[in-house]
Structure formats: structure tokens, C-alpha cells
Design a protein that fits this description.
The complex is a heterodimer of chains A (261) and B (626). Chain A contains 8 helices and 12 strands. Chain A is an alpha/beta fold. In chain A, helix 2 runs antiparallel to helix 8. The longest helix of chain A has 15 residues. The N terminus of chain A is likely disordered. The chains are: A alpha/beta (261), B mainly beta (626).
Amino acid sequence: MLGLVVVLALAAGCQRAPHRVIRVCADPNNLPFSNQAGEGFENRLAELLAADRHASLDYTWWAERRGFVRHTLQTNACDVVMGVPSGYEQALTTKPYYRSSYVFVSRRDRHLGLGSLDDPRLPSLRIGVQMIGDDFNNSPPAHALSNRGMVRNIVGFSVYGDYARPSPLSTIVDAVDRGDIDAAVVWGPAAGYFARRKPLDLAPVTPRADSATLPFTFEIAMGVRRTDAALRDELNDFLARRHGDIARILDEYGVPRVEGP
Amino acid sequence: MVCINGTVMGTRCLTAWALPLCVTAIASGACQKQTLDNSRPESARALAGSFTSGNPAELQKDDGQWVMPAKNYAATRFSGLDEINASNVGQLNVAWTFSTGMVSGHEAAPLVVGSTMYLVTPFPNILYAFDLSRPGAPIKWKYDPKPLGASKGVACCDLVNRGAAYAGGRVFFNTLDGRTIAVDAESGEPKWITQLGDINKGETITMAPLVVKDKVLVGNSGGEFGVRGWLTALDAGTGKIAWRAYSTGPDKDVLIGPGFKPHYTMDQGKDLGITTWPGEGWRTGGGTVWGWLSYDPELNLIYYGTSNPGPWNPDQRPGDNKWTAGMFARVPETGEARWFYQTSPHDLFDHDGVNELVLADLTVNGQARKVAMRADRNGLLYVLDRTTGQVLSAAPFGFVNSNKGVDMQTGRLIEVKEKQTTQGIVVRDICPAAPGMKDWQPMSFSPRTGLLYIPHQNLCEDVEAMSASYIAGTPYVGASVVYKPGPGGNRGALTAWDPAQAKIAWEVKENFPVWSGTVVTAGDVVFYGTMDGWFKAVNAKTGAPLWQFKCGSGIIGQPITYKGPDGHQYIAVLSGVGGWPGAIVSADLDPRDATAGNGWGGVLADLKAATTRGGMLYVFSIGGGH
């Protein structure tokens, strides 16, 4: 009789605490952010979050392109996007957990010391920028340089890269490293990661914004469905409590951070 | 597919639905090879057999059959059949139907060859053959090309396919993941499969091929991704690439040689495909070829258009950006260019130049001319001399304020400064909007009435900056493009246009954009469909409504007509809303987001209430099925 009661109690115990699963929407091939092998810093943040919440992790993989949120968060296949710009319209966003900047990337042995968009040497350098494909949209440095009359010395790289290769975003940094181009202006996390073990100089772009619609620094937050305020609040709590651990992960990946405005 | 049950670093691959799996397939090493070479089991077989030039040149003249989406090489979509006419079209009824079981936009034209109908679906691009000689037209065979699911993440605007083409006992069609496939028309067995586009670089294929002589002509899609556009000719017998003509770059890549004689000075010069771009912008310059081809057997020239330049913003690509947003005439055997005319030099508005060129012999200003007619995205109806590329007239066929027509001396589009867009600047009321006055949806031409029947939009747009956006881990400030109804409030129209006089004959206003093709017959009836699902017949001379039928889903397909084995005339059309404008329904976008679907979300918010998704082929005849 006693044995039966114990068995029943154990069974009930299992039922009382169903194992929680944190469902993350992520790109399977987008280092340094995420990949399917779990090698990106957003993978690491997701693991930290899962451990913190005593949950297991489940990923929905989708290339982070037009339609990413529509095919992932919005279909309820997953609940969290680990990185989106603060105030991103397609999601409810947490408080930002890092702020980075577009950076100039150049070879250390060139001693260029680039940082300013108004550097008079820029027009005589071959400068790489990433291109966004949608109508009227482009990366902030692409706009800023053309606003300064620099078009003929600009080399475009698809922001999508060659998706058949690992690390599609590395192409532009590799081009600087090889000397194919003199410099590039790249979003900080990608530049920082791919330049980690290379003799390259990085420096945040100045000015920090050309106009209200052309900033070079962005705050990055986590995103959930617009209706998921409770999850957003839980993530905010996590971000505040594990601030130090998060910073260590970002440091490990070479994510350059800048202070607030 | 290694990931289906796999566990990687404690992360589980999602198994519940197919799409992410396929994205994982291109990210994992084990699957990579599949995406990059032709080593699929089917293509490994020795598939190529003898190809007898089974004569689209002759078949296209037969009004009983419909062997290419545009009906004939002149792309008139005119049928000489007249059993169904203005006096009896009211008795049309459903003869039979077929559900594709798919929910993406259905843009294809069915084909009819002998007593078989062929139909290619949107992704996953299944090719069906139906036996028209048996009651209910049962499936004769089906061929599943198993395109890579990852291509769905690359396609810009829904997962459409615009149809197949028949020649020499084979059906040729393209798959979203960038392959061209020849299938035996009798057995449904693949004869050859050629990988042309690389989805890993953003290339997809959505267009319908055209077969001319022993060449299958295919172009790529993907200008949004910085793809460099091309038209490729494949040997119809073997699937081997015969030639490829790029839309940007050095003359040798564009197949420009001594025989190239463009009419206007602006298109003359050496290597303009390089020199009209900043730096190396031409390498990622767009000019894809995702629209239509037509062919004049007498002049032995093929005609087609190139898409907008990309993906730079206008500010970042000073110059005319040759050879984008214009039209080429080429020799089919070699691909050599004969002339080019640029409808939108230095395109500012995403005005692809890929719309169909309809060929006819017209009397213009008292002179007999061999013309090519184009209803362009930019709102102008061009009539060109197709022997030279000279513009004979270019008149707005709807409300246009972003250009003032064409300078007839230079051939250049006359732009309106106030309507030009720049990053960070708000520009309102640009007409037409980015999809243009008319997009890919093909018009028809009746030699009986001398009129073009143009299905089109009536939309304007506002462009302004919005909040931060994010793609591939890269933040930027996105432009908000909001479309709105043009003057009159109707978002679409069927316009009958007299190309000889360069003026409108009549117009039927439609609430939604008319995103279906049109067909016109010797019975003087024009057929077209609406995005809320009405399939309509109107009088070709007057536009008077004659008949309509409510289909299960909105219509963005291309109607066709043919003579069945029973000797009677049939009309067929695919319903199944979607495509660029219809994604609000087919992809279930949030209508509260005015910029969803690249601007369509707000202007078609009510489409979701007007129709639901789902592909169905409808075939009509007098009296219908029994």
C-alpha cells in the first residue's frame, strides 16, 4: 500500500512540474550571432537564459531576412529573438542589453587610424560597405558615404553573403584582411568577432549619427511577440540580474560596445 | 535533412514543420553539396535524349492548343476561337476543377497540348499533366522536382511560378531553387535538369521559359539580393548552357558586339555596363530577367526586359546603370544583342523593365510599322519599332506624376524632381507606386479590335524613414513605403488601349489591383480575374460586363482558352491569391502593419476579409460539366 502511494506521488510530482522549454527563433548560419552548432553569442545567451530559468532550449531556424519574424515569432513556432534593435516595430522589445556601433575596419600595418566619416583621406581609399537589398533601404555607412559624394570608391558586399559558406558575414572583414579593400565600415559585433585574431584596427564611426534617421550606434534588445508582455518582463529581469555574465559573453566574442548618448 | 532527428550541442532541430528544416539543410555541411551541384539522383541519370524541334513555331499558331503562357511568340494572348462569344458567354459554367492543395500565389498559365493539359504549381513547383479526353480530366502523371525548401527564404515576393513551355515532346519549367527541367510530355519522366541559379547567393527563378528553335531561354530573379541579372539559353535536347547574356558588366559579358545598333545615343558606347556604374557596382547591379520573352521569327529576334538596378539606392549608383530597367533584342542562336532601349535610366522607383513586349504590325502615323508594345511599370505605354528600338509613342495609361513622358529626340524618360526619393527625406504621393502602373501581369492584344487589354494597378506611395530594422544581424533605419489608392479611389483597372492612336478606348475600374493576366478571343470577349476572386468576361469592343463567376480564392493567374478533344472551346484559369500584393492573404501578414509586404499591407488590408488563400484550377465551357 505504501509503495503504491509513493509511486502515485512521484507520478503526480512529474505532472506538477512540466519541464519548461525556452523556444528561440534564430538564424542557423549567422556567426557571430548564431548558428546551428550553437557557436554564436546569441546561442550562448540563450543557454544562459535557459539555465537561469531551469529550462531546456528549443530552436526554430530561419534565415534572418525579410519575413524572419513573420515565419518564426508570428507563427508561434518560437517565443524569443535574442537580438533585435531596441524599439523594433515587428516585436515587443526588452530593455537593451548592449549598444554597439558601426566601426571602421582597416589593417594595422596600414596605420590609417580611421574613425571619422569626414576624414579627408576617405575619397582616395577603397571602402567596403554592406548593402541591404530592399527598396530604398541601405546600411547607414552606405548612405553616409554617398551623402559625402563617395560612390566610385565604394565596394559593395551583400549583407546576406554567400549562405553556402559558414559565416556569410565574414566576407567584408576578410576582404580588408587580404588587402582587397583599404577599409570597411561594418556593424560592430560582426567586425569585432571576425577581426579577433587578425591584425586589424577597429574604431567606432564618428559622428555617432548623421541625422535622426541615420544613426551609427544601435541598442540591441531581445524581442518577443507584441502580446507577450509577461515574457518581456521576465527577460528584463533576467537581463538585469545576469548583466555581468552577459557582458562576459559579449567580451569573449569581441563585441565592441559604446556608451549611451 | 540530417537534422531531422539530430541533436546538435544540446539544441534540437525543429521537426514539426518543413520550412526551417530546409533552411538548416543549407547551413549544415552534410547538406551543402545538394545546394551547390547538380548531383541529384535524377540529374545523375543519363537523361538527355533526342530533341526533335517539335515546333512551338507551328503549334503557337494553332488556336486549339496553348503551348506557351503568352499563347504565341508575339505574346498577344489572342485566340482565334469564337465558339464562346459575346452573345453566349453568359452561359459559361464550370466544366471541371482541380485543387493544387497549395496556399501560395498561383500566377501560372496552364498549357494545352493535344488532349493533355499541363500545370506547374507555385513552390514546390509540381508539374501536373491532365488527360482532357476523359471525364473530369484525371491526372495523367505528376512530376515533383523537390526544390530545396531554403529557396523559400530567398524568394522576394511569395513563392510564385509563372508557367511552363512546351516544345518537341517536352515540357520545360523552372523551379524556385534555380533549376530548369525538361520533362517528357507523355511519360512525365525528366529528360534533363540543369542548375542555373544559386539560392545561396539570392538567385531564384520564377519566370516561364520560352523555347525558340532548339533553345530554352531562362532568366533569373533576385535583384533585391544584389544578384547580377542574366538571360541564359539552354540546349533543348541536352540542357547544356549554349550562351548567357548578363545585364551588366563588360560588353563581352552582355554579348554586345559589332551587330549591336541601339537607336538612341544614350545607349551607344563601349562597355556601358561598367561605365554607367560607380566602381564595381555593376557586379551586384540587378537587371534580372524574371519577366517575359517574345520572339519575331521573321526578324529572328527575341525581345525581353531587364529588372531594376540593385541593390544600391539611387544616390549610391550615379549613372544610367546599363543595362537595367530596359529592353533587349537579341539573336536566339547566339544571344548577340541587336538593340537596347532603357525605359528607366538610373531607375529611382523599383521600376523593373520586365513587363511583356507584345508584337504586332500596326499603322502608326500613316506608316506600317512592325511594333513592340510595352505597358511599363513607370505608367507609360510604349510603342516601339521592333526592328530598331525607336520609340514611336509613349503615353500614360493611368495617372502618372513621377515622369512627364519620353523625350522623343533622346529617348530619355523625363523625370519629375519633386517626386525623387532620397534617404531620410519624406516624399509623398509618388504615382505610380513601386509596383508600377502595371507589374508582370500580362496584357493581351486583339488584331480584330486593334486594342490592348491591360490589367493594372492604380496606386501611389509615400516614402519616409521609419524605425530601426534588422537583417542578417545588421541594423539600419528602414524606409517606410506606404501604398495608397490613386486618383478615383479604385486600386485597379482593366484598360483597353488603342496603341495606334496612343489613347484609351475604355476602362473598367476595379476595387483591387488587377493582378491577373488577360486573354482576348475572336469571339470578342476579354477574360480576366480580380484579387477577390471574380473571374470576368467583358465585351472586347466596349468593356461592357458579360459574365462573372466567383472563384474560391483571389485570381492572379493567367487565363487561357483551348479547344477540348470534344471539339468545344474551354476557358481555364488558376485561382489562388498571393504574389507580391496578395501575400497579405497567402503569407497571412498583419494588416495593421501598413508597411507589411513592402507597402502592400495597408492598401490591401481589406483583402483578407474579401478572400482566402488556396489554389484551384477552374475550367469553364458553355453549359459546363455534366
